[in-house]
Amino acid sequence: MLSASFISVRCRLFARYAEIVGQEEVTLELRRNTTVGQAVDVLRQRVPNGDRLPERPMVAVNQEHALAGHVLDDGDEMALLPPLAGG
Question: What is the pTM of this model?
Fold first, then answer.
């Protein structure tokens, strides 16, 4: 069980990002009041090849676009979305 000063965030990686780190999902234990930008920094430090992920990827929190300053809550789902190509 986490202390009241920490939250648990489920981080999902798609397509190329999942290939880079070798997994589609990671659970991050973060300090309360952590922003999306800070969580991405933590993810880049903690997962294999995380430094190959972009510093500021497009992110959705609970299936809605979120900016780097968005503060995460316990139980949130944060998804890193690679650029989409179309034609």
Answer: 0.91
Distance from C-alpha of 87 to C-alpha of 80, rounded to nearest angstrom: 22
Contacts of 3 (CB under 8 A, 6+ apart): none
- Sequence-distant (6+) residues with CB within 8 A of 77 are 9, 10, 11, 12, 61, 62, 63
Could you state, in order of their start, the residue ranges of all structural domains in the chain?
6-80
Question: Residue 64: its pLDDT value, please?
Answer: 97
Cα 54 to Cα 41: distance, rounded to the nearest angstrom: 10
What DSSP string runs through 50-79?
Answer: GGGS-SS-EEEETTEEE-TTPBP-TT-EEE
Tell whether domain 6-80 is in CATH 3.40.50.2300.
Answer: no
Residues of the chain with pLDDT under 50: none
Q: Give the pLDDT score at 83.
A: 86
